[in-house]
Specification:
Distance between the termini: 17 Å
Largest sheet: 5 strands, antiparallel
Strand content: 35-45%
CATH class of the largest domain: Mainly Beta
Shape: globular
Radius of gyration: 22 Å
Length: about 450
């Protein structure tokens, strides 16, 4: 049985929606009308294509739609039921934000998902935040009990960014990098330096630390500070990993290199770069920042390695167009091309996640909106992130029509992606699987 999405006008100021009906004709059909839509009712997997194409029509000009109906025969992707991973008010914390997730695959053991988040006392970014973990051995169907794995008295822990070491030194180790702020000072109130002088006292410094696990997340080391390796001595005030995940390079002369994506302040003048380790995370050094291009600055950032060995960064944009920014490195993250806008990756100024199957097929997740954190969408690039699907493409897949903020995709199989994302107005962090098999 197919689906029908009917576009109709609504009162000025009313929320957008898409009216979805059963279509006994057996195809997904869209009737043209006036350009105003939104979602009524809860999203299900069978609604995906209908809602997605309705959104495509909404974003296009109604004047260009001539045919009375357009029908699509392709079956929609299979989207699993949403599974709660972190829920505000449960596990001892009122709020959970800023997800990170990795799938452990080293050494031939059964795959395991590790999901991380900031555990907060309030919705404020800075407080006495801790870092928490849950694990899954069945690709996200069920999850272990929640554990607090990092806390520092009087400090706010932020921006968890995880990576599994798979080659060379410390193969099998999981590294989690994060920042700590004085509990009453956010990124606009910290200063340059390392806290060793009168003009840079300890209580004005944003610090970076790592913890690691050598037993697939069962136990974790104490925090080890690495600020001097990942922060420039001058200019940089705040620093922030990701948030999301780091990567380990798998190709070429830099195989085994770990890159942690970073941005650095001052506030509203951010720049993005990679922190680099060639010894499995024992030591770190800073790469160069990506040069600014068009109007706007890059902020929260993720990276992936292309099949040709180049590294691509993809970043949230501030003070410019409501689209993502990207740049390319051909020297293992040490230097970058000039940042450019990605016109087909819309965003409402929000963190987005990125992952790749093989360096050619790349997944990006984020809100498909330039005004609100909603319309969670999975974009699929088939050419290593050189191009991204336009509105209406079957490779631009709506996975959540309601609230959708920070997200991290994780590859579960060549045709299956897991997505860990903030939902329900930051009240929970949820996991879903998207199967792309036809």
């Amino acid at each position: 049985m197919g689906l029908r999405v009917r576009r109709r006008s609504v009162a000025k100021g009313a929320p957008d929606f898409a009216e979805v009906e059963r279509n006994p004709g057996g195809k997904g059909c869209i009737e043209a009308g006036v350009p105003r839509i939104a979602v009524a009712g809860r999203h299900t997997a069978s609604m995906t294509v209908a809602i997605f194409v309705a959104l495509a029509l909404f974003r296009s000009s109604a004047a260009t739609i001539v045919a009375p109906a357009t029908c699509i025969d392709a079956a929609p992707p299979a989207i699993s039921a949403v599974t709660d991973v972190f829920v505000g008010g449960e596990g001892g914390y009122p709020v959970y934000r800023i997800p990170s997730i990795v799938r452990l695959e080293h050494g031939g053991a059964a795959p395991r998902l590790l999901a991380f988040a900031e555990a907060r006392g309030s919705y404020a970014d800075v407080g006495e935040n801790d870092l928490v973990l849950r694990m899954s051995d069945d690709d996200g169907a069920t999850w272990s009990a929640q554990r607090t794995i990092a806390e520092i008295a009087g400090r706010s822990l932020n921006n968890p960014c995880a990576v599994e070491v798979r080659a060379q030194t410390h193969a099998g180790r999981v590294i989690l990098m994060f920042q700590s702020y004085p509990k009453d000072r956010g990124e606009a109130k910290v200063v340059e330096g390392f806290g060793t002088s009168a003009d840079a006292p300890d209580d004005l410094i944003c610090r970076t630390s790592v913890i690691h696990s050598d037993d697939r997340g069962a136990t974790w080391s104490a925090p080890r500070e690495v600020t001097r390796g990942v922060k420039r001595a001058t200019r940089a005030t705040s620093t922030a990993t990701g948030p999301g995940v780091g990567i380990e390079l798998a190709r070429g002369v830099h195989r085994g290199r770990i890159l942690m994506p970073f941005n650095e302040g001052p506030f509203d003048r951010w720049r993005v770069y990679a922190a680099i380790s060639d010894d499995g995370g024992d030591t770190w050094r800073v790469g160069e920042t990506a040069p600014d291009g068009a109007k706007g600055v890059a902020n929260e950032v993720q990276m992936f390695e292309r099949a040709d060995g180049a590294v691509v960064l993809n970043a949230r944009q501030h003070l410019g167009a409501k689209v993502r920014k990207s740049a390319v490195s051909t020297d293992g993250g040490a230097t970058w091309s000039t940042l450019v806008d990605e016109p087909n990756l819309a965003e409402p100024t929000c963190m987005g996640g990125i992952a790749t199957v093989d360096g050619t097929t790349v997944f990006y997740t984020g809100p498909d909106s330039d005004t609100r954190r909603a319309l969670g969408t999975l974009w699929i690039s088939r050419d290593g992130g050189r191009t991204w699907p336009a509105v209406g493409s079957p490779d631009r897949i709506l996975i959540e029509p309601e609230g959708f903020a920070y997200s991290v995709p994780v590859v579960l199989a060549p045709d299956t992606v897991g997505v860990l994302s903030e939902a329900a107005g930051y009240k929970r962090i949820v996991f879903r699987r998207v199967s792309l098999a036809r």
